[in-house]
């Protein structure tokens, strides 16, 4: 086991992220082709190039009347020569006349402006009076204004949200090249863990990390495989992890990576693979194990559910996202928000406080959950996001800190 | 058709949201029982009450040694009388001795403090020397500290994210009561719309709203049913919408609700149901149709993809979430962030600008997409979120406005 940490013994969070990102970026997953209505949350596997202009022809931004501005005349009244609905091909505009036109409909040849219908008056004889004479190209959306043929509209490595998939549909494609989903098998360790619905003996607790990790993996677009609980002995741990490495793209565990005597994951990895045990300047969460079993990467999270929650969101997710081919929008951007609390005692680790956004008399403020040290997930459920308190930092009430939303809405 | 709007003709966004919320809250969907690993994004259908204390017994917060603080003695050296691993039931502590104990293990009877192992020294004769004498209850997590039996740990109407599902697992449950997913059938209107992979004739464009809406509905946990494109004539529109209302919990359309002559959705709804056409003080998006076909609610969004994107996120989603039983975290909370741009011209509608968060020399700033007026979704893909510019508001560079994250990470 190597010790990767600088002399103070703690690896800064951003350095850990950078190392995880680098380790995950050496290879790319296989590509598969799927329908755009099945691709939400997947990662685009190639640049998407527009094969047409959007709009394909100049069109009208308004319901109104198309005309040629050089046809101006004293009474501003014109014969109505055609009607152009969206989706139809117009005739060339007969000069000296106007054409009824609807939003999205193609601008006819010879026309160079559209007057919105509110500025027109339909006369009793069927002619149209223009109440406000337009300027050149008024209310005309030029061909290719939104997308020009040849434009790269989305880049390889982009996560596909609803807007991105709608954009792909705009250029007439219903199939998209995405990276295969990463198969992540996860295990919980600890003889004290009991499955749901079983009676608890003294000293036992229910296993919540499995459900937490399953849903975190699912939420972020990975394929979660429940490996179960590994018994606290070395032989079982070795056998289970070796099989897992054949079965999945990444192996994860919770627990078993602290310095306690009862932790066998470290010992197992040392025998069947390679392990770095990182002491990271992160609170909650400190230890993170990172290594491999054969060619399969291994991530060992702490055993405390709050620590799992934070280290997954801040560290493990970054590794998995890069490993799955994502190259954009991986790391959320913190926004500065004023605190409604103070931090009087600086710490040696960066802390991710579970906070809510609350409208106060002083504006929107971050309020922290009263029990940050609890092992259970109540504060994570309650929270709108994390307030980032940097190592060695104190915070005065009203001062701003970085806030990262937990996307609970 | 009633006109719901105040005298200035535009309904404020918050008032529209309040009306949609009220209309959606009169009934609740049916309940179903599913596994916690299948419940991500679903809505909890009943209060979740803890049937046990967590932790179930007082346990150790550290790896170390359990002792009784009254057993203090001059040489601070003690016989080691037992070893308590997590998950095992301890013997009562023999007074005058210490017990080896690991994180999460039950505190034995007679012990009232734990000394972390870093503050202990194992002597050659097997005894343990305590280097730093503890105070009462040091490093002990009391029974029920995190959750007390009888506590409501989650409330009816709560959306289930990974942390909430982990919390449910903490109390030993693997099944959860959730509301059935809302079935939403959606249609696009417009003779100019062409399905993917078909050649475009003059005046035609590819249908992107269908894919956009499908994925927005999916992303927010609704069941999306693709109804296809409704032809621009009244008979087809009536027939299609009547059938749809039998088939789904909510009917949605895009397009067909503006004031243009080519819009048949309004006319159809007037015949087969009830429709309010709201002119909302929102940009982009202005018109929103809200009504019913028999007992089935109807939502008609605008036809422009950017308007669909904004009105879905800000208005339609709120209706659908309440209709699906969600009662908490429905409406995202805007955080104040300083603008790197200015808004010199106040408008009559609240505008949702597509913005990115950018680290500048002045700190984190909102930068807006250059082309806010484009119909296509490029700016929505590019954006980290919306900057909310209130109606009748101008903004100076450096001034803060409300920012709502689009959850792109």
Question: What does it look like?
Answer:
2 copies of one chain form a homodimer. The first copy, chain A, is elongated and about 95 Å long. Chain A has 4 domains: 13-29 and 181-323, 3-Layer(aba) Sandwich (Molybdenum Cofactor Biosythetic Enzyme, Chain A); 33-51 and 154-179, Alpha-Beta Complex (Molybdopterin biosynthesis moea protein, domain 2), CATH 3.90.105.10; 59-141, Molybdopterin biosynthesis moea protein, domain 3 (Molybdopterin biosynthesis moeA protein, domain 3, Beta Complex), CATH 2.170.190.11; 335-405, MoeA, C-terminal, domain IV (Beta-clip), CATH 2.40.340. The first copy, chain A, is built from 7 helices and 26 strands. In chain A, helix 1 runs parallel beside helix 6, helix 3 (209-219) runs parallel beside helix 6 (305-323) and helix 4 (234-247) crosses helix 5. The two termini of chain A are 42 Å apart. Chain A has helices at 13-24, 162-170, 209-219, 234-247, 265-272, 305-323, 378-382, and strands spanning 31-35, 48-49, 59-60, 64-67, 77-84, 97-101, 113-116, 120-122, 128-130, 140-141, 152-154, 175-179, 183-189, 193-194, 205-206, 223-230, 250-254, 273-279, 282-283, 287-293, 296-301, 335-338, 350-360, 363-368, 385-389, 400-405. In chain A, strands 7-4-6-5-9-8 form a 6-stranded mixed sheet, with no helix packed on it. Helices cover 19% and strands 30% of the residues of chain A. The first copy, chain A, is α+β, with helices and mostly antiparallel strands and 409 residues long. Residues 1-7 of chain A have low confidence and may be disordered. The longest helix of chain A is centred in the C-terminal third of the chain and has 19 residues, at 305-323. At the A-B interface, helix 2, strand 14, strand 15, helix 3 and strand 22 of A face helix 2, strand 14, strand 15, helix 3 and strand 22 of B.
